[in-house]
Each structure stands twice: as C-alpha cells, then as structure tokens.
Amino acid sequence: FTRQCADNPVSNPCLFEYVYFARPDSFIDKISVYSARVNMGTKLGEKIAREWEDLDIDVVIPIPETSCDIALEIARILGKPYRQGFVKNRYVGRTFIMPGQQLRRKSVRRKLNANRAEFRDKNVLLVDDSIVRGTTSEQIIEMAREAGAKKVYLASAAPEIRFPNVYGIDMPSATELIAHGREVDEIRQIIGADGLIFQDLNDLIEAVRAENPDIQQFECSVFNGVYVTKDVDQGYLDFLDTLRNDDAKAVQRQNEVENLEMHNEG
C-alpha cells in the first residue's frame, strides 16, 4: 500500500546529518558519509589557507570523533602535523542535547581528557564538526590552555547554526544557539578562542553533493532558516522555544519526578 502525501515531491536530505549524526561508514542517498567529510575538510582547509595564511599553527587536533576525518584532511591541506590531542570517554552521550547548562559543562570534562604532550607550548588548531550551544567549544578551549597551549584556534566544519531544527532533531531553542543573532567575532570572544572560522554553506553543500550530483538540494534550515515544508512561521518557532528552552525542560523533568513519586506511593 502506498499513498501520495504531497504533490510534486522533491528529495531534500538533511545536510546536518552528513556533518554530525551519521556514522562515517554509512551511505545516505548514495552518498558516502566518510567521503563527504573528507570533502568538507578539503573545502575548510582551503578556506583556512586563504584567510589565515599568516597564522602560526603548529598542530591540527580534532575534537573527537566526528571531526577526525575532517581534521586529517585539513592538516594535509595546510601541511601541518595531525595529532590526537583528546582522549574520548565513549560512555558519555552527546552534550548539546543534555538538559541544563551545568550538566553539559560537567559532561564535557567527563567526555574528553587532554593529552598534554600535544598541547604544551604549541599554537593549536582545533577542528570540530559544528558549534551548537558553544558549551563544548568553550570548555575544550579552556582545557587546551590548561594543557599548555599558547594559542587556540577553532575551525568548524559546519556553518554557523542560527536556527532551530523542526524535523526531528531535539535542538535547543533559537535563543540558546550561540550563533543566533551573533557575528563570528562575538562568538569567538564568548568561547575564548584566539581565532574562529566556519565552513561556508555553499562549500558544505558542494562537499556533500560531490558524492551524488543527482541530489539537487538539501534541507539546510539550521544554517539558513529556510524550512523546506514552507509551513514553519515565526509563531511556530516561538512556540517551540517555549518547549525547548532549559527552563521549560527543567519544569518538565520536575513534573516527571513528581508523577513518578505519586505512582510509587500509590
């Protein structure tokens, strides 16, 4: 049984899935996630070489582990050493969807541990797949400095995430996205980096589409605010904000605890 749910449907794969969620050995819409991420590293490495040509980078270090393949390609483009400067605890989940800023901050420290030998007296280029709230970035930059780094630069394989996702990702409310309403230098100051650079959206699209030119367009709403279903207005986004912000989730958790206690008492 099949049912046509829309007239003239067009495939719009989620671009963020290739950056962040998918396993590197996955194929989505005939696109190798691994190859797409290598392409992301090529594009971002070329941008860094153009815009930061005089930057004194000693080593390229990924923030594990989605960004590892991306960082390796950036290091190749820049002609700099690639090192694994962070050891990851695989039993801590994704921090940006965790409830509460305090828990997210603690979880970053539990999730990663710096290898001091790779940071001491070096100017390091950290590579991450994306920056959502900025919590992870701020904590990791602080950890790099504590490990002895002289300067800490950060490169994001994704463009600035300025808008919430409405198609299935439990993304923070717009006001909790660090790039929402801010320019790059403002973000840099908040997270404490000596330099910050983001992938261009067109370059990200090209990096992924190169693996399957038959894909004509992608769902890019978290980057550009364009929702492909054309039925998302500001009123709906404001409503989502009331459900997704930390205060709302704290109330929800408290209600769940109270309901559980009532059930146990009964």
Automatic annotation (TrEMBL):
EC number: 2.4.2.14
SUPFAM superfamilies in the record: PRTase-like
UniProt enzyme class: transferase
Keyword Lipoprotein: no
Domain Phosphoribosyltransferase: 48-156
One MF term in the entry's GO annotations: amidophosphoribosyltransferase activity
Keywords, in A-Z order: Glutamine amidotransferase, Glycosyltransferase, Transferase
Pfam families tied to this protein: Pribosyltran (PF00156)
Protein's UniProt keywords contain Transferase: yes
InterPro entries per record: Ntn_hydrolases_N, PRTase-like, PRTase_dom
Designated name of the protein: Amidophosphoribosyltransferase
